[in-house]
Amino acid sequence: MTRDVVIIGGGVIGLAIAWELKLRGADVTVLCRDFATGASHAAAGMLAPDAENISNGAMLSLCWRSRALYGEWTRKVEEITGLNTGYWPCGILSPIFSQQEQSYTYLSPSSRESPAFWLDAEVIKQYQPGLSEDVVGGWWYPEDGQVDNQALTQALRTGAMTLGVEFKDGVKVEAIAQHQGKVAGLQTNLGLIQADHYVLATGAWANELLPIPVQPRKGQMLRVRVPESIAELPLTRVLFGQNIYIVPRRDRSIIIGATSENVGFTPHNTPAGIQNLLQGATRLYPALQNYNIEEFWWGFRPATPDELPILGASHCPNLTLATGHYRNGILLAPITGKLIADLISEEKTDPLLADFHYSRFQVQSSTTTQMLTHPANFTNGHHNHLSLSTSEETIPDSQLIIAGKAFKSRLMTGTGKYRSIEEMQRSVASSGCQIVTVAVRRVQTKAPGHEGLAEALDWQKIWMLPNTAGCQTAEEAIRVARLGREMAKLLGQEDNNFVKLEVIPDPKYLLPDPIGTLQAAEQLVKEGFAVLPYINADPMLAKRLEEVGTATVMPLAAPIGSGQGLKTLANIQIIIENAKVPVVVDAGIGAPSEAAQAMELGADALLINSAIALAQNPPAMAQAMKLAAIAGRLAYLAGRMPMKEYASPSSPLTGTISA
């Protein structure tokens, strides 16, 4: 059983999972950026799988199962906390305005498991007085209901704390650090947080951390209050109409919602949004126009392209997904908590989870090369993440994360040794790289090939990696690193604290000084640099550098500029197996086949300069290296076949016809 779990997201889904995991004996920590701004607080709390006309069979089953859990689930929460969740199985009315709209009555009673009853105009207006004269009838869904979403969320949090769940508020997860196919930790504004297992339950913000197609769908809402002069509550039924719902609470407040706007994370209420809500609500229940308006608010629903949640396993065995609940986060909280807790604590996979796996959004293509070079293969169209694909299957890949900054390309290039600035520009473009290393001293002295370099590249698209090439001592390297940081600022990269650390006293073989490199790294880390040290392929030195806080380790494959290939293969493999920071193979690679082999080992990235710049056609070689890096990464993720000492037939012998 997994004992140590970190849940990213403190909304109702994260809380429900934390609650269930803690009941199963896990040690649970919940990271919450801002408890008050999630969609859980902005909802109306309807439990309405029937009234909402959920047509997807798997989704309807999931919602029915969750609704069935609600009574006992909230009773336990209230029992432990002493707090009222506002659970009210009051049923939901769906009035309609014309006989033509009877097609909007969803499923007839005979075709559904949940009961539904048609009420004609006279009956529905007796059942709920005050409905508009235009209402000609409607459906009554007796098993639907509501819960006070804000009260529920607070009770769940209080209950989880009572059980011993740890909450860390004000924590923003900036990146999910992944290494060798597993989550190695969470990069946060408070530093690195690690656990045995992780759950992504960040709602509308999930796409900021992983390439899954979850987008915010803004919803505006308002609350009115029944005047005290009215003794009895005039509205006691949830009213669910077309594009409008009205939810009465027992405290005399009435919630009206909600718009559905595809405007990203644009905040605030708008006159148009509130006007549409008021028009729809007063048409359905005219008395609302005389009630006091208490409050306006908005929230962001986590919407997927098919409006179904993403639940279950991810591409990392120690990361579970629970996001994309769209309009039904409150409704699905009990079942999501149960299924995810079963999956993590007992490795028990409910068959229904297969219908909500993230892989349903993977794009397939008949053109292998196109898919291999495409930067994002998810239907949301974002280009922040990389997904590697074959013509038959897509393999989602994690981002390259260095010091909390995400990159989609795993190939870095240099700017030296080119025959012209123009050739360098074309090569950088062909490589598709996002990180380019620049020798600070050569730019400052305007060495041949470096004149005008600062103006030659678009530094709004390319991340500069200043390097300390030419420095023979730790002291020199530290001084040049500081100059490099200032150079990056002058080019508009104010937050660039990266430095490629090179300490090379030997002019013949250009092998890095391990002692000087370690000394300089320690000082630069203390000064806030993200240090990417160039080193011999020494596993012990790599570990020491990682311990002092470097952002990567960059072992050489062969002497720099030699093009000899992977001469230090065994040591690089040891470094990769033991490193908890990205491993960038640097120096010595001369051909795309060697680049692919380095990535097949599990290297996180490559830095290649000479092999591109000294080729007969540098831009073409840059593109070849780009494809090699992608192919090698894809091969690593796919997993090669085991080597055998003997032959094995490609076609099995079993089941063949014998004479």
UniProtKB/TrEMBL annotation:
Q: Which GO terms describe its molecular function?
A: flavin adenine dinucleotide binding; glycine oxidase activity; thiazole synthase activity
Q: What class of enzyme is it?
A: transferase
The UniProt entry annotates the active site at 500
Q: Which reaction does it catalyse?
A: [ThiS sulfur-carrier protein]-C-terminal-Gly-aminoethanethioate + 2-iminoacetate + 1-deoxy-D-xylulose 5-phosphate = [ThiS sulfur-carrier protein]-C-terminal Gly-Gly + 2-[(2R,5Z)-2-carboxy-4-methylthiazol-5(2H)-ylidene]ethyl phosphate + 2 H2O + H(+); glycine + O2 + H2O = glyoxylate + H2O2 + NH4(+)
Q: Which domain of life is it from?
A: Bacteria
Sites where the protein binds 1-deoxy-D-xylulose 5-phosphate: 561, 587-588, 609-610
**The Thiazole synthase ThiG domain covers which part of the protein?**
402-652
Q: Name one Pfam family in it.
A: DAO
GO biological process entries: thiamine diphosphate biosynthetic process
Q: According to its UniProt record, in which pathway does this protein act?
A: Cofactor biosynthesis; thiamine diphosphate biosynthesis
Cellular compartment(s): Cytoplasm
Q: Which UniProt keywords apply?
A: Cytoplasm, Oxidoreductase, Schiff base, Thiamine biosynthesis, Transferase
Main localization (coarse): cytoplasm
* Protein family (similarity comment): Belongs to the ThiG family.
State the function annotated in the UniProt record.
Catalyzes the rearrangement of 1-deoxy-D-xylulose 5-phosphate (DXP) to produce the thiazole phosphate moiety of thiamine. Sulfur is provided by the thiocarboxylate moiety of the carrier protein ThiS. In vitro, sulfur can be provided by H(2)S.
Question: Subunit comment for this entry?
Answer: Homotetramer. Forms heterodimers with either ThiH or ThiS.
Report the protein name in the record: Thiazole synthase
**Species this chain originates from:** Richelia sinica FACHB-800
